[in-house]
Design brief:
- With about 400 residues, the protein is an alpha+beta fold.
- Among the domains are: about 45-60 and about 285-375, conserved putative lor/sdh protein from methanococcus maripaludis s2 fold (Beta Barrel), CATH 2.40.420; about 105-170, Helix Hairpins.
- The chain has helices at about 5-40, 110-135, 140-165, and strands at about 45-50, 50-55, 55-80, 85-90, 95, 100-105, 170, 175-180, 190, 195-210, 225-230, 230-245, 255-260, 275-290, 300-310, 320, 325, 330-335, 335-340, 345-350, 355-360, 370-375.
- The strands form 5 sheets. The protein has a 6-stranded antiparallel beta barrel. Strands 1-22-18-15 form a 4-stranded mixed β-sheet, with no helix packed on it.
- Mean pLDDT is about 85; it is low at about 310-320 and about 385-390.
């Protein structure tokens, strides 16, 4: 058989194989296309969602910051002189008044020294009185009288200095407040500066925080301040700005601010971390929806807006009905968000008042998905369900 005939047969076989495989792949593509069309057009059950009608609201402008609770007065009470602890007049955690005795040091030697100096001072006064009478009679010179006056003054000053030294043997509370944990024991020898116990004034109390210099023109003394603490997450504490640092920190470009709180129940304690809200007198008009209505995503936040199924226009009568109600669908719409307050968030752009958004079941929603409405509890803008002290 010639090479020409063999080549012709091979060409024919290749053509037949190409046709067969083409039919096979074409058939598979056709079947896949029909299956996709079937699944795309397959009716989906309506998703049950709760809804909320976007509404306009007037929100007072707020500035947010973080701060630290600081005491008006807070010290470690120390001994100014050395001595052995003779008496402890307090218990850890006591509430004390200014001047209350906390610790008494052994002072027998100092008291004896004081008695000796006071006796010398009395003798010096008596001698000065005699020399003064003699001077008036002309029996002594003015210089002798001045010398006796100096001796009298010196002895009295020495007695007074010893009296002050003796007073230092009694450690007293420098101001009203609450004591901490006792740090000394009976019989312990104290050196000057040894801490005895911490003393803190809890009422009133300060919260110190800072704001960027761009916000300096918005704040002033007397503005109301709200504080939230991790220790009491369901309460807020109200105070007011009491002081504003006159200068701006050159390193951070922040201005330091201090707010004063009455703290009648003494829940604010020095060192606590505080979340601070400063309420400004101005207000802004916003469109609000619940935070649960927002589908958060890295590429943009969105809401699902309910519309009538026939026209795609919210609020118009539809022809397709379910149980006597117009059938609803949802449309995904990207929005720009503003501040949050309680369960609500402000929508800066992308939503109008009166439009209805889905607030639950967002994970199972997509464009043109049919929904049924099941509303229960509506959200609140109140960030403080449990009131705190003021």
């Amino acid at each position: 058989m010639s090479k020409r005939i063999i080549s012709k047969r091979m060409v024919i076989m290749l053509i037949i194989l190409a046709v067969v495989f083409g039919l096979i792949f074409g058939f598979k593509a056709f079947v896949g296309m029909k299956m996709n069309e079937f699944f795309d057009n397959m009716p989906q059950p309506a998703a049950a969602v709760s809804t909320y009608e976007a509404r306009p609201d007037s929100w007072a402008l707020m500035l947010e910051a973080v701060g630290t609770v600081n005491a008006v007065n807070g010290v470690d009470v120390t001994s100014q002189v050395a001595g052995e602890v003779q008496k402890i007049e307090f218990e850890s955690g006591d509430t004390v008044k200014k001047g209350d005795v906390l610790v008494t040091l052994e002072s027998a030697a100092d008291r004896a020294q004081l008695n000796a100096l006071q006796a010398t001072a009395r003798l010096s006064r008596q001698e000065f009185d005699r020399y003064e009478r003699l001077f008036k009679q002309g029996s002594i010179s003015k210089s002798e009288l001045d010398n006796r006056r100096a001796q009298r003054d010196q002895s009295m000053a020495q007695a007074q200095a010893q009296q002050e030294q003796l007073n230092y043997k009694t450690v007293r509370a420098p101001f009203d407040g609450r004591l901490g944990i006792r740090q000394v024991d009976l019989g312990q020898y104290l050196q000057p500066g040894t801490p005895v116990v911490s003393l803190t004034q809890l009422e009133p109390i300060f919260v110190d925080f800072s704001l960027p210099e761009q916000e300096l023109s918005k704040v002033e003394q007397g503005l109301k301040v709200r504080v939230r603490l991790d220790a009491f997450p369901d309460q807020t504490f109200e105070g007011e700005i009491s002081a504003i640092e006159p200068g701006v920190d050159a390193a951070t470009r922040n201005v330091n601010i201090q707010a004063r709180f009455e703290n009648a129940d003494r829940k604010l304690r020095p060192g606590m971390f505080a979340k601070v809200d400063i309420q400004l007198p101005q207000a802004e008009e916003v469109v609000v929806v619940p935070r649960t209505a927002i589908s958060y995503a890295p590429y943009g936040n969105a809401v699902f807006v309910l519309q009538d199924a026939d026209t795609g226009n919210n609020g118009e009568q539809a022809t397709g009905e379910s149980d006597g109600e117009p059938q609803k669908i949802v449309k995904k719409r990207f929005v720009k968000l503003g501040r949050q307050r309680g369960d609500l968030v402000a929508v800066v752009d992308g939503l109008k008042p009166g439009e209805v958004v889905a607030t639950s079941g967002l994970l199972k929603l997509r464009n043109d998905a049919k929904v049924t409405i099941e509303n229960d509890v509506q959200p609140s803008a109140d960030p403080t369900p449990t009131p705190g002290n003021s």
